[in-house]
What we know:
33% of the residues lie in helices and 21% in strands. The protein is of the alpha+beta class. Strands 12, 13, 14, 15, 16, 17, 18 and 19 form an eight-stranded antiparallel β-sheet that branches. The radius of gyration is 22 Å and the shape is globular. The chain binds flavin-adenine dinucleotide, (2R)-2-hydroxypentanedioic acid and zinc ion (ZN).
Amino acid sequence: VTGVLAELAAAVGPANLVTDPDLMRGYLVDWRGAHVGRAAAVVRPGGTEEVAAVLRACRAAGVGVVPQGGNTGLCGGAVPSADGGEVVLSTTRMRRIRELDRENRTITVEAGAVLAAVREAAGAAGLMFPLSLGSEGSCTIGGNLATNAGGAAVLRYGTMRELTLGLEVVLPDGRVWSGLRGLRKDNTGYDLKQLFVGAEGTLGVITAAVLRLFPAARSRVTAWVALPDPAAAVELLGLLPEDRLSCFELMSAESLDLVLAHVPGARSPVPGRWPWHALVELTDSRPEAALAEVLATVLERSPVADAVVAPGRVLWALREGVAEAQNKEGPSLKHDVTVPIGRIPEFVSRTDTALRAAVPGIRIVSYGHVGDGNLHYNLTKPRGTADDEFAARAEALATVVYDIVAALDGSISAEHGVGVAKRDVVAGYKPAVELAMMREIKALFDPGGLMNPGKVVFPAGG
Length: 462
Ligand code: FAD
Ligand code: 2HG
Ligand code: ZN
């Protein structure tokens, strides 16, 4: 490894090669503190050619490379392994917005651009980039692409996959693929960009992308709705106008309890304690859309217990605060799952019943993007239980959750990906032929197994 460091310093400039343990620390642990690794160095290339030089040098030396953007991922995919021999490739210096094309409704950005900055640039041009995540102030477009990020606006605009028209990628052998086409139609063979979206850095390093833009919202209304159960949420969802609904988020009472306990100044928007809460947002590109009236009419006809309409981001802070609030309550067992929307009520009731029987007092912090079928079915230990006693049950509890997801034709990773956290368990829920195709694609692009080693792809016979 030491041999390659001089080459890396030459590739990116000595100031952008970090080997000091104190300066490396932040790159070696994930946002939750759940995954900790070691590395030979952190390298911070400033452009595509520098990324290519880094990958060539690492390949020649047989050194593994771990791409990292904002390091907000929740599956340990951006954290190096514990062996200390890998290099973290941080994209944070590559954050230029290369072009905004109004006629084509596209923006071309470098992979290290922070999501919030891309949304702002689109907004400044009177347009909108719709990807909406609580981590938008830190996560990068490269990370969003590599994880095929979802978030709150998927029901209307799709995941990162649907928002991407072209990519620039450095392959593991250092070749640069310039696929930055801003075309909505391009049937000239395999859709190669989609292989890299959701690959979590295992097939190459994404260095830039052409993304779709949309008309900005010129009217908006947001409501907090108290509900008796998830079935009422699904019923309300079906009554809302699909062409104007931009978000439909659901939270259990236990999720709101944590936000009220840990987010300074947080207050419940409705009086009393209700089992479930939905956050609903309607938007329209016309300023005169009268959305408040539309929403009020639907709410009058639907099975809601109480509802409050509020402007701005006040209500969003309650929803986006759950992940951090749950962290403050100790270790959480996360299950980012999805089932067909109509099966959410059955999923919740079957899983809640099974888990409450298995662990009396368990806190079920379930919340998420129910408008697209995605729940973060997260668990917090019962009060008074030791962290390690609860953690020891993680695998058994996950099996309960995932078996019910599988029985309902769902997926055990909806939007956060696989990383290391779910690599082995995902393999248990996929047909052998699907696992084999994944291994074959990985071997084709990365025969040496040096791109994000050990992540996503379950090894043959492993
Ligand atoms: P990182 O964490 O740095 O990396 C993630 C993966 O992508 C790793 O495998 C890494 O190797 C790979 N990678 C990063 N950059 C590149 C690149 N340029 N080329 C190739 N591979 C690369 N996710 C959602 O989907 N929806 C949400 O609503 C959501 N909300 C969140 C809220 C909070 C508070 C937090 C902490 C996280 C949330 N996330 C959410 C998870 C996370 O923000 C997303 O997965 C995000 O897309 C990761 O971006 P990043 O730049 O931080 O990537
Ligand atoms: C969210 O929707 C994020 O808030 C984070 O995807 C979910 O931490 C989680 O489990
Ligand atoms: Zn989410």
